[in-house]
Structure formats: C-alpha cells, structure tokens
Amino acid sequence: MFVDTARIFVRSGKGGDGSVSFRREKYVPLGGPDGGDGGKGGDVVLVVDTDMTTLLDFAYKKKYAAEDGGNGLGSKCFGKNGENLYIKVPLGTVVRDVESNKIISDLSHPGDRCLVVKGGKGGRGNVRFATSVRQAPDFAEPGMPGEERYVSLELKILADVGLVGFPNVGKSTLLSVVTKATPKIANYHFTTLSPNLGVVDVPGIKSFIMADIPGIIEGAAEGVGLGIEFLRHIERTRVLIHVVDISGIEGRNPLEDFIKINEELKKYDVKLWDRPQIIAANKADMLYDDKLFENFKNEVKKLGYTKVFKISAVTQKGIKELMQETAAMLDLIPVTDVEISEEDRFIPQEKKFTYNIRKEGNVYIVEGSFVDRLLDSVNVNDPDELRYFYKVLKNKGVIKELVDSGIKDGDIVRLNNFEFDYVM
C-alpha cells in the first residue's frame, strides 16, 4: 500500500517543576533552601530513514508525545530531562504546520532531521529565589508547558527523471526495460495506481533514478481520473520524459495528447511545464506509416521541443539513445535543493506568557497565561511570597498598566480566584 500524505499530532514534554525544599541536617539549624530545578521536557524530532518508502506507518498511529521532564528534588538535585522522541520518516518528506500551511522542513538528504516541537524548560527550585533579604523562599517555579501542533507530512519522491504521459502509452514498460523495477503492466487505463521508482543502469552512461508517475489525463487539474494526486512526485525531477503513443492504434492523436498533458502540468505548477522535456514517441514497432512520426516531430519542434526520439519499449529500439540523451542532459543540470521562500517558511514563535486587563465596575480583572503561571508558582497566603508576587507584577509592567487604566486606592484587582485591594 502506497501512502504519500499523512497528518499527525505531536506534543513535546512539559518541563519538570522546581522543588521547594530546605536543608535538614543534624547540628545544622536553619540550613536554608536547597530545592533543585526541574528537568527539561523532551523534544519531538523527525529523522530520515532511508529504508522507509511510504508514510504507511502514520495511517495507524497519529498521536506522538515526548516524555515530560522530572521534578526537581532536595539537596539541589535537578530533575531528569525528558527523553526526546524521534520519529522516522522517508527521504523526501516535506513537513508542514497544518494551521499556517507553512513548511517547517524539507527532509531531502540522508541524515536530515527536523525539530518539530521543543520541550518545555524546567522550573527553578526555591534555592534560585534566595536573596539576602528573602533567605527562606517557600516557593518555586512550575515547569514550562510543552508545545503541541498538528503537522502534515507529504512525501515527494526523489527522482532525477519523471515519466509523464497519458495512461497506457507505455511508461511502465519503459521503466521495466531500463531498470529493475517491476511495475504492473496491462493493456488498460490506470494500470499504475501509485508511483514506481527504479535506477537506470545502462552500460556506458552514468546511472540515475527514474520515476513512473500514474497517468495524467485531460482535466486532471480539476480532479478527473486520478487527478493531480501524484504530480507532487515529479516536482523534484530535473528532466521529464514525455511518453506519447505514436502508433495511433487506439485512435488517439499524439500531438493533441502531448499538448493536453503539458496544459495539465502548467495548471498544476508552471515550473513543471517549463522543465526540460525529452519526447519519447513510443510503440514505433506498431507504426504503419513513418510520416506520422515525422509530422509529429516537426509539429512539436514548432512548439520549442527539439529532443524527440522514436522508440519501442517492447522491442527496445531507440531505448539506449534515449537514455544516453537523458544522462547527458542531467550532467548539465545541477542538483539543487527545493527553495522555500520566506513567505512559505514556518518560523516557530517563542512561547510567551501574556495577560490582558479589563474593568467591571470598580474591579480590575487581570487574566491570561501569565496570571495562571504566576499563581501556580506562589502561595499568596504567605507574606514573603506575597511580596515576591507583587514584585513580579511591578517588574512585568502590570502595576503600571493598572495605573494607566485609571485604578484608584481601594479598587479591587482580581487575578483568577485571588483578589486584593489596590493601595498606591
């Protein structure tokens, strides 16, 4: 079963909470705080596995989560870092953020890897908050939450040459002749239902990879037939071999077929249409009049295509010359990585805790992720911690924003379930 698209949910590990602990030893009264930091949460990383050829594994498992970081301990012991989760994907996988549809990474080289979601940072233990004034802090930071997102995986086969053309023109037969690939071959449309790949190894020429793309027909860009489902697999190719049935035994006009296929390529992506093409006029062994080939050759030359070969995949006539020309063209076209524009590239945003202030009567309500995290880290019923709480509000600009909003002495400030009277 060939699967070339998938959508999965990934979540990185939460950072471990910092520890609230005090040194307890015989003969050492008032030992002071010794709570350690929490461990970092595990990352989720995609790595290329050259043994994989499809995204079939992701049809059965769609949720992936890395390990959380361990909580800090006493004696200034740090919590254990969460294990990173490594997910194997085939070579040629394009990773996108589903929400923005932007590209996170293009894994097109052996050994490539991509950090999809980063683990949360561990919280600081209470030893970190000790100062000359606050010598016994009874609070610590909670760990930072992990990230989570849906990502789409799209496999784009890495091939040097792509075979395109209408169904039943002999693409699969040609691939089977010049490579060791064994595609299904039969005399009916849409024999090929998924891309086939093979290495061309003809004596006297440098080997290259060729892909047989399932038949495109008129209206494919609008979803007719197999539609454009597999055209993504020729996006990376450097040269296209456009196979046409020159025999006309099925009542088809090879020139019309050639023009129609190129129109579908242009509708899908103008870069594909503009890619160098070699025309393979196949089934020449069944050609009853050589003038048909000459007329076809002259017409496509008027359209700007000069590389036209008369071949027969069945008898292998003209195959060697076709492969030699293909190899020569590949030598002139360098291998380049797919360019990802700044507009299409996904740039992860640094996680920030935010808040907003709104007023209901004489109550000023401060809410948001910043408030949740602050209240999780302190005990507002402890005077020392309450002073730290107020200091954080002041340092983060919350107090100034309340003043700018018109707060007065005696007005109430509410943060979730905690309220206090504002005093200038």
How does this structure look, described?
This protein is an alpha/beta fold and 424 residues long. It folds into 3 domains: 1-155, GTP1/OBG domain (Spo0b-associated Gtp-binding Protein, Chain: A, Distorted Sandwich); 161-332, Rossmann fold (3-Layer(aba) Sandwich); 356-421, GTP-binding protein OBG, C-terminal domain (GMP Synthetase, Chain A, domain 3). The protein has 8 helices and 18 strands. The strands form 4 sheets. Strands 10-11-9-12-13-14 form a 6-stranded mixed beta sheet, sandwiched between helices. A 5-stranded mixed beta sheet has the order 3-1-8-5-6, with no helix packed on it. Strands 15-16-17-18 form a 4-stranded mixed beta sheet. The longest helix has 15 residues, at 254-268. The protein starts with a strand and ends with a strand. Residues 345-424 form the OCT domain. GO terms for molecular function: GTP binding; GTPase activity; magnesium ion binding. One of its GO terms (biological process) is ribosome biogenesis. Monomer. Mg(2+) binds at residues 172, 192.
